């Protein structure tokens, strides 16, 4: 019987599940939105419904999960959720194992994404890969020789919490999707006649999604926002280079869809802030797996766990 695996992404705004074969080729994708006001219980029910549907049609060998928040990866237990109530202290691993009867592996979403990109995305062929996700928050993951690096619980590689000054301002405060939303909202109200203002209109959420069109049209306000954001990002990544000196840095998350509008100035800033002895800097790439990065990484996670278990048994 062919092994089949399920990779799950549990985020603050969406759920993604991918069913794959034993070689991790995608068989089917499932997606559900996390509605504003949804509790953790309601999200778990959505997951349970899909999992039951999958198990009615196929035999699962294991499940991998990428969760949007700090957790104890060995126990599979959430430490805290900053976005949705009801997850704090919840053991995802035990819950899914009881629900399905199959092995489960759990990581935070940035670590899962890092593993996915290292093994099946832009990090293929590199020994050390640092991944940074630029979404509603900012997180990071480090993969060395195709294995995730772990520090002491409850986490490591939290690049979003690096300070960029002595007032407590962090990389996440400046470079997350929500941070860029705030920059756009503020800018279009002080520059009411520009292209970005025309594109954003009266919107008060998700303003960052209008940046790419404005950048393509050469809007000065959009270019200024991008320059400032990329400069701070490059400064934060210089600490990553000085500490870990990875072979490649990969940008993921919603802001990564800006592509070279973000990558190129971030790379230039990184070069400026990196000490001469560490030049040339590691290349910066955009995540190749795009929105599938986390669930594919979760698939790699459970595949690795089961493979190791089989090797030990032999």
SSE succession: EEEHEEEHEHEEEHHHHHEHEH
Look at the structure and give the mean pLDDT. Answer: 94
Any idea what the CATH architecture of the largest domain is?
2-Layer Sandwich
Number of domains: 2
CATH class of the largest domain: Alpha Beta
CATH superfamily of the largest domain: ATPase, nucleotide binding domain
Number of strands: 12
Question: What best-fitting shape do the alpha-carbon axes yield?
Answer: globular
Fraction of residues in H or I helices: 40-55%
Low-confidence runs of at least 5 consecutive residues:
none
Class of secondary structure makeup: alpha/beta
| Oligomerization state | single chain
Strand arrangement, largest sheet? 3-2-1-4-7
Give the count of helical stretches: 10
The whole-angstrom Rg is 20 Å
CATH topology of the largest domain: Nucleotidyltransferase, domain 5
Summarize the main sheet. 5 strands, mixed
């Amino acid at each position: 019987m062919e092994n089949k695996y399920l990779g799950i992404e549990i985020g603050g705004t969406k759920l993604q599940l991918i069913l794959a074969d034993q070689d991790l080729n995608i068989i089917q994708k499932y997606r559900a939105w996390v509605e504003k006001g949804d509790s953790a219980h309601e999200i778990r029910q959505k997951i349970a419904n899909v999992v039951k549907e999958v198990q009615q049609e196929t035999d699962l060998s294991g499940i991998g999960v990428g969760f949007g928040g700090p957790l104890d990866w060995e126990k599979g237990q959430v430490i805290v959720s900053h976005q949705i109530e009801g997850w704090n202290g919840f053991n995802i691993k035990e819950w899914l194992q009881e629900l399905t009867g199959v092995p489960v592996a759990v990581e935070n979403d940035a670590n899962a994404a890092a593993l996915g990109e290292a093994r099946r995305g832009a990090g293929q062929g590199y020994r050390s890969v640092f991944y940074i996700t630029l979404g509603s928050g900012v997180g990071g993951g480090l993969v060395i020789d195709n294995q995730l690096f772990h520090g002491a619980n409850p986490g490591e590689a939290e690049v979003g919490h690096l300070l960029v000054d002595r007032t407590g301002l962090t990389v996440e405060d400046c470079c997350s999707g929500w941070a860029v939303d705030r920059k756009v909202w503020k800018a279009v109200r002080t520059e009411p006649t520009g292209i970005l203002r025309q594109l954003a209109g009266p919107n008060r959420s998700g303003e960052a999604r209008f940046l790419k069109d404005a950048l393509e049209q050469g809007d000065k306000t959009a270019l200024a926002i991008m320059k400032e954001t990329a400069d701070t990002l490059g400064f934060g990544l210089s600490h990553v280079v000085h500490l870990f000196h990875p072979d490649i840095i990969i940008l993921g998350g919603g802001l990564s869809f800006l592509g070279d509008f973000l990558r190129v100035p971030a790379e230039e800033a990184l070069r400026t802030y990196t000490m001469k002895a560490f030049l040339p800097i590691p290349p910066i790439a955009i995540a190749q797996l795009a929105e599938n990065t986390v669930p594919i990484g979760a698939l790699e996670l459970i595949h690795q766990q089961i493979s190791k278990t089989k090797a030990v048994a032999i």
